[in-house]
Structures are given as structure tokens and as C-alpha cells.
């Protein structure tokens, strides 16, 4: 059927029928003579779509869904313009009773003799225009009750990424409060896809967090659950070369998530970006996450020797945070204090950078004078005091993130 024939076959939904579908009133449809699958809104929503998206809470009874499907079975698989089936909407809005009815109706249909796949599994695996399955929708909207039903019905299926690169597990791990959803996916699915956009995984997503204590606790618990299922995720890097530990160092000022990641694989502290060669220690230092810096150094002190593509070490990065308290606290860590005389590719120690800062911000002067004269000359043959007194081609201390 071409588009013009399709348009001619559509009977746009009468307002009376639309309102009946909204309320789940079966009466006006019982004696309706035209095929119910031809009753559509401009977005090609069927009466089931209209019903499911207009229930403000979980419907206690599902007679409407059941009776409509009894009269018109094709509605079970009929999608709207966005490719959404009734199951997509039932999953999105958390209507678990409707989800069960839809699945039971599909189970009653004959198995495809060629593929051997049941109609129920075909429905569960159907995707909309963004390649989201019903499980993607349930995970995104935190419908753990629906996630449990869907994953138990089709545990063998590995739900792949949508057009944005998101798998259901990645979606669940991307926001806090999703531990029940994550549990259901990890427990019920035999083959789990951990992928996310830009080469990231669900562990990358779980390593991001805010600054609220409860959120941090939930995120670290999520990371632990993912690692118990698949511990090699600690070494997976995204397209920028960031590991989950990089993200933990960037976001987690309390070191809670970083601690979990290092418990499973402390060697992750050695993973450096592909291009800029920054490690998680560099990221933690410039973010001012001193507790995270201490956690990383305590578990793998030799990683302090790693420098980025300019030769900057972690103490250079502590200076680049432009926070005196952060730098002083980092200087109290013996392994980092020893980096004070280490030079980058231009011959600048961290204290050469401080001299450039102190020229404009006198609050840095006491730090600069702490051990005056032991830092040597850079490749321009300038000492820290030469720089502080302004006798130089200006050094820029730029935040490299």
C-alpha cells in the first residue's frame, strides 16, 4: 500500500471515540463497524496508544486493552509515526498490568515456523524510530516493575544500543536511583550489553556523580554491581581514552566511587588518554579532588611518575587547579611533594607555574617562597624568581581540561 492509499484508508478518530479511548470506555467500540486499526490520530496513534498514554496511574483493570485486542488483534503490533507500539507506551508509563496483557496476547499467537521465535519475543524486540525497545523505555523512565517483566520474558536477548549508542543498562546506570532497574537487568539477562555512546560503557556512566552524599553512595554501589558481573569494564576506554576511573576522578570528590574501581583493578591508575596522555590522577588533581588523589596514590604510588603529553605531572595539575588549598594539600602527600622539582617539556617545574600565577595573584607568593631557588632554570634559562619579577616571555597557566 503506497502513502496515498494508506491515507485513504485512515479514518481519523472521532472526538467521541478519542475521549472513550482516553477513559478506557469500551462501549462505543463494541458495535463499531469499521476496523479498529484504521482509527488513528494524525500521529497514527491507535486507540490503544491513546488509552495507555492517558492513564495517570497504573490501571487497576486491563479489560479495555484485553477486549480491544480481542476485537482487533493487529493492534498488538501496530506502531505510530514514531515507531512506538502499545508495548513501548505501556513500558514508558509503567503500566505493568497492561504489559502482562500485551505479552499474554502475543504468546497466544502461533510461533513463526521459519525463525522459531514466538510472537511475544518479536514484540519485545521491536524498536521505534530511535531503535529503542520497550526495555529502553522502561529503563529510561525508571519502571523497575516493567523491567522485571520484560527481562524475565526474554532473558536470552542482548538488548543492543539505540541510535544514540545507549543500551538499556547504560541508560539505567546514567542516573541515580536506578539500582532496582540495574539489578533486574543484571540478574535476569543471560547476555548483557554494557555499551554506551562514544565508546563508553555502563561503568563509565556509573562513575559520574554529583555532590550529594546519598547519590555518591548509590553510584558507588552501582559500580560495584557492574564490576561483580563484568570486572574487565575497568579497562574499557571511550573514544577519548577515558576509563571509568577517569570519570570517577573527575566527578567524585569524596573518592567513594574511585575506591570501588581501584578495589577491582588498581592498575587502572596507569591508563592514560590516547592523545593528551592524562591519567585519572591528573584529572583528580586539577579538579581539586584531593581525597581522590590520596586514594589513587595510596594504592599505586608509582603512577605519580606518569606525565601528560607536555610533561606535566600531577603536581603541575594541582597548580593548574588555581586553588592554593588544593596545591598545599597535595604537597602534603610525600609522593607528590617529590614532584616539585620535576620539569615539563619546557623545563618548568610546578613552582615555575606558581611564579607565573603569583605575579598576578599575590596569595600564591608564600607558596612560591617556600623553597626558593631549588627549582633550577627552565629552557628559557629563567628561574622562578625571574618569572615572578616579570623578566620573561609570559607563561600561561591554562586549565588543560
Descriptive notes:
- The protein is 48% helix and 1% strand.
- The protein has 401 residues and is mostly helical.
- Strands 1-2 form a two-stranded parallel ribbon.
- Helix 19 (314-320) packs parallel to helix 22 (350-360).
- The model is unreliable at 210-216 (pLDDT under 50).
**End-to-end separation:** 55 Å
| Oligomeric category | single chain
- Which class of the largest domain in CATH terms? Mainly Alpha
Average pLDDT over all residues: 88
CATH topology of the largest domain: Serine Threonine Protein Phosphatase 5, Tetratricopeptide repeat
Strand order of the largest sheet: 1-2
Strand content: under 5%
Task: Provide the structure class.
Answer: mainly alpha
Q: Tell me how many strands there are.
A: 2
Largest sheet: 2 strands, parallel
Number of helices: 24
Helices and strands, in order, run as: HEHHEHHHHHHHHHHHHHHHHHHHHH
Unreliable sequence segments: 210-216
- Percent range of helical residues: 40-55%
Count of discrete domains: 3
CATH homolog superfamily of the largest domain: Ankyrin repeat-containing domain
- CATH architectural group of the largest domain: Alpha Horseshoe
Rg calc: 29 Å
InterPro entries: Ankyrin_rpt
Keywords: ANK repeat
Protein name: Ankyrin repeat family protein
Organism: Populus tomentosa
Characteristic key phrases:
401 residues, mainly alpha, Serine Threonine Protein Phosphatase 5, Tetratricopeptide repeat, 24 helices, 48% helix
How would you summarize what this structure contains?
The protein is mainly α. The protein has helices at residues 3-9, 15-23, 27-30, 47-53, 63-71, 86-92, 96-107, 119-125, 134-140, 144-153, 168-173, 179-188, 202-206, 213-229, 244-251, 256-264, 280-287, 290-299, 314-320, 324-331, 334-337, 350-360, 365-368, 384-388; strands at 11-12, 39-40.
